[in-house]
């Protein structure tokens, strides 16, 4: 009795195990068929599975098992590449393995790469289109595919750099003595003293001027004929000893000897170098002091080497300093110095800033921003549309009837989420922003090659 019960239990367990394995095998078979369907294939019974060819179902909606079944039918009927399939009414272009894109065969048969049959590709069918992938509207909605148009515009990246304020060397002047003399009075006694244009800097007593001036005044007082050439010669001797035309006129108008000369500041600024003291003897050509203006200053901005191409002379600059929050100093790029810092990998750009009120002082640090607004208009697309493969840049171009094709593009600069397109697209076309990686994977499985549009090349 116990043996009978045990035998019945074993048979019941065996039946349950067999039924479970059958259900599992059926589910795996159906799942593999669903997974082998192309991206745009419709499910059985849907509107997109309807026939639209002369003889039967559209091959573009076939999954891999349906393609294998067609290959077996071709082998039985002796159909090969170039023949018309009576079931579809389409001409067979070639046979291929969907898992090994790019290899094509003229005759039906088993794949030399995988344990499966080859799949036919028909001319006139979507599956034979070697340049695009078709995605049904339902799948597009499920994937959340978004597109954007290729626009024309100017992509001008804003470069930011820090730099130190320096003297504008082009605003520097040198004050020299024009004759040998003695410094009687020095009005500027220390470096970095501020001076104004026309201000008397120092007074020099020049003995050599006395004899020349007395000779000139004596000839002016003499009466007689043919004295003008002598007067002119005396005037030339005063010029030779270093007197200016204004000083000679002063002597002539006053009728008195002027042995002292007041040297004035040729421009407003700061005395950056003082090389004279009271009582010193100076020779003709001796440098007395140097004056540097502060109406404009230089900034040596350190621009990253990767952004140096965007910095050009004449580009407008706006700078701010922590010492004066809220105040903006404007200027422009004067030149890009031919020097690269090997440690920081930066390029020095010399900027000229207007300095109202002489608030910017040499040694201060400023933050600069500049943008080249003279760049030409180019095609611009969102950066998220670009697929970078490492060797090239590809976008998925959206066409009509749900078709998408990979297009190789040549990109330029990228800024603010936008990428400049130099070649490969045309203004007004639409590129895929989201879901392009899935479409690109499908295109790779089908062996589609990204290529430049003829109309998009410059």
Task: Note down, in words, how this protein is organized.
The chain is α+β, with helices and mostly antiparallel strands. Among the domains are: 1-34; 47-128, no CATH class; 137-155 and 376-456, conserved putative lor/sdh protein from methanococcus maripaludis s2 fold, CATH 2.40.420; 208-258, no CATH class. Helix content is 22%, strand content 33%. The strands form five sheets. Strands 5, 6, 7, 22, 23, 24, 25, 26 and 27 form a nine-stranded antiparallel β-sheet that branches. The protein has a six-stranded antiparallel beta barrel with strand order 8-17-20-19-18-21. Strands 1, 2, 3 and 4 form a four-stranded antiparallel β-sheet that branches. The N and C termini lie far apart (93 Å). The model is unreliable at 21-55 and 452-458 (pLDDT under 50).
């Amino acid at each position: 009795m116990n043996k009978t019960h045990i035998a019945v239990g074993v048979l019941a367990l065996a039946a349950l195990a067999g039924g479970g394995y059958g259900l599992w095998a059926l589910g795996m078979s159906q799942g593999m068929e669903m997974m082998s369907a192309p991206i745009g294939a419709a499910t059985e019974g849907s509107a997109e599975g309807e026939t639209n060819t002369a003889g039967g179902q559209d091959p573009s909606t076939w999954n891999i098992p349906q393609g294998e079944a067609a290959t077996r039918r071709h082998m039985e009927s002796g159909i090969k590449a170039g023949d018309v399939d009576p079931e579809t009414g389409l001409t067979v272009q070639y046979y291929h393995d969907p898992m090994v894109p790019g290899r094509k065969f003229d005759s039906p048969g088993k794949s030399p790469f995988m344990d499966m049959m080859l799949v036919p590709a028909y001319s006139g069918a979507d599956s034979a289109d070697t340049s695009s992938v078709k995605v049904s509207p339902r799948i597009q909605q499920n994937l959340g595919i978004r597109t954007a148009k290729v626009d024309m515009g100017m992509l001008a990246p804003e470069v930011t750099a820090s730099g130190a304020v320096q003297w504008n060397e082009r605003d520097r002047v040198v004050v020299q003595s024009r004759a040998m003399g003695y410094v009687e009075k020095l009005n500027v006694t220390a470096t970095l003293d501020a001076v104004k244009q026309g201000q008397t800097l120092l007074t020099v007593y020049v003995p050599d001027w006395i004899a020349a001036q007395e000779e000139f005044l004596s000839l002016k007082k003499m009466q007689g004929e043919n004295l003008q050439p002598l007067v002119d010669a005396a005037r030339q001797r005063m010029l030779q000893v270093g007197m200016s035309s204004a000083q000679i006129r002063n002597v002539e108008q006053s009728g008195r000897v002027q042995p002292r000369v007041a040297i004035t500041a040729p421009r407003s600024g700061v005395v950056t170098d003082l090389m004279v003291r009271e009582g010193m003897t100076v020779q003709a050509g001796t440098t007395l002091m140097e004056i540097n203006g502060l109406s404009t200053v230089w900034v040596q901005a350190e621009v990253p080497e990767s952004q140096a191409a965007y910095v050009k002379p004449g580009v407008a600059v706006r700078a701010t300093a922590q010492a004066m929050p809220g105040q903006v100093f404007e200027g422009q790029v004067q030149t890009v110095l031919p020097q690269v810092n090997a440690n920081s990998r930066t390029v020095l750009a010399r900027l000229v800033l207007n300095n109202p009120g002489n608030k910017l002082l040499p040694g201060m640090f400023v933050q600069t921003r500049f943008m080249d607004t003279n760049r030409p208009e180019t095609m611009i697309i969102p950066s998220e549309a670009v697929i970078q493969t490492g060797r090239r840049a590809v976008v998925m171009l959206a066409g009509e009837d749900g078709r998408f094709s990979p297009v190789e593009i040549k990109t330029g600069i990228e800024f603010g989420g936008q990428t400049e397109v130099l070649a490969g697209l045309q203004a007004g076309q639409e590129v895929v922003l989201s879901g392009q990686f899935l479409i690109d994977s499908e295109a790779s499985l089908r062996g589609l090659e990204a290529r430049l549009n003829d109309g998009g090349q410059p």
